[in-house]
Amino acid sequence: MKKPVNDTAVDVVKCGSCYGAENEALNITCCNTCEDVKEAYRRRKWMQPNLDTIEQCKSLHDPEKIKNAFNEGCHIYGFMEVNRVGGSFHVAPGQSFTINHVHVHDVQPFSSSSFNTSHKIRHLSFGENKIVGKINPLDDTESIADEGKKSL
């Protein structure tokens, strides 16, 4: 199948606003996502703006998406490469951001008693999985959040 070629068509590359955080010396020129805006403010060492006023962030607070989250589950998989030092990781609903170098989650939409945080961990391991006799203590762990105890 042949398609006609239109040589006047030009791909327009969008360059979203960084809401004042643009800085060529720091290579901050375009912010096309909400994360880009937050990162630009972090790199400028500025307090994060009100995300409700940021065009790139407005779809994140879409009431329909939040409503659907109450009826959905999730399947998380992947891997992380980390240094051999103490640390932690977590999985949480909502949006995350940084305030004064502290990692914070906005879980306000999910704090009602109708949001069920029950979960099952099928497999979680660190390092090589091929070690004979290695025990992964969280494998097949299940936690049911009873009514009135929705946060675990």
UniProtKB/TrEMBL annotation:
GO terms for biological process: endoplasmic reticulum to Golgi vesicle-mediated transport; retrograde vesicle-mediated transport, Golgi to endoplasmic reticulum. Residues 18-144 form the Endoplasmic reticulum vesicle transporter C-terminal domain. It holds the Pfam family COPIIcoated_ERV. PANTHER family: ENDOPLASMIC RETICULUM-GOLGI INTERMEDIATE COMPARTMENT PROTEIN (PTHR10984), ENDOPLASMIC RETICULUM-GOLGI INTERMEDIATE COMPARTMENT PROTEIN 3 (PTHR10984:SF25). This is Endoplasmic reticulum-Golgi intermediate compartment protein 3. Coiled coil: none annotated. Belongs to the ERGIC family. It is a multi-pass membrane protein. It comes from the Eukaryota. It is found in: Golgi apparatus, cis-Golgi network membrane. GO terms for cellular component: COPII-coated ER to Golgi transport vesicle; endoplasmic reticulum membrane; Golgi membrane. InterPro entries: Erv (IPR045888), Erv_C (IPR012936).
